[in-house]
Automatic annotation (TrEMBL):
Pfam families: Acetyltransf_4 (PF13420). This is N-acetyltransferase domain-containing protein. Residues 11-157 form the N-acetyltransferase domain. It comes from Clostridium cellulovorans (strain ATCC 35296 / DSM 3052 / OCM 3 / 743B). GO terms for molecular function: acyltransferase activity, transferring groups other than amino-acyl groups.
């Protein structure tokens, strides 16, 4: 578990605690994200029990505006993998993402950030590209839903 704490004039980022889960679940429902209580709790436990994992909430005036989950891999150079991140539709996603990446670069010497995006998520791909991410590789047919296959795009940003 990596403890994350960032305070900015516009937002506050804090690691998620068990007592935050009910608020996060309600926020996810408002965002129309499909995740059940059991799955959210399992993600929390994975983070809580793992050395390099992070799971944090982004707040603006006590309101949740986003969550991030991932891990830092400590090698000859450190890299972060973003498992998932969800922003409120009205938040300044780009500024927040850049602030988080800068925090990891300064505090954990992270030099590379990677995340996976389903190939049909054109809006998400454009957003990541506009913030310095490039396609590193594609896993063909990685996602299968109702008989339909979609590719997973691994996107990378060097920091």
């Amino acid at each position: 578990m990596l403890n994350v704490s960032i305070e900015d004039n516009l937002f506050i980022i804090k690691s998620i605690k068990e007592e935050d889960l009910k608020h996060i679940e309600a926020w996810l429902i408002d965002q129309r994200e499909v995740i059940n209580t059991k799955e959210l709790y399992e993600r929390f436990l994975e983070y809580y029990l793992s050395e390099g994992e992070f799971f944090f909430k982004i707040q603006e005036q006590d309101n949740i505006i986003g969550i991030f989950r991932g891990r830092i891999e400590f090698y000859e150079y450190n890299k972060a993998w973003l498992s998932f991140f969800i922003f409120d539709k009205n938040s300044d996603k780009g500024y927040i993402l850049d602030s988080i990446i800068d925090y990891f670069r300064k505090n954990y010497s992270v030099r590379e950030i990677e995340t996976g995006v389903i190939s049909s998520n054109i809006k998400g791909i454009k957003f990541l590209k506009s913030h310095g991410f490039e396609v590193a590789r594609i896993s063909r047919g990685y996602f299968k839903d109702n008989g339909e296959e979609n590719d997973m795009m691994i996107m990378r940003r060097i920091v």
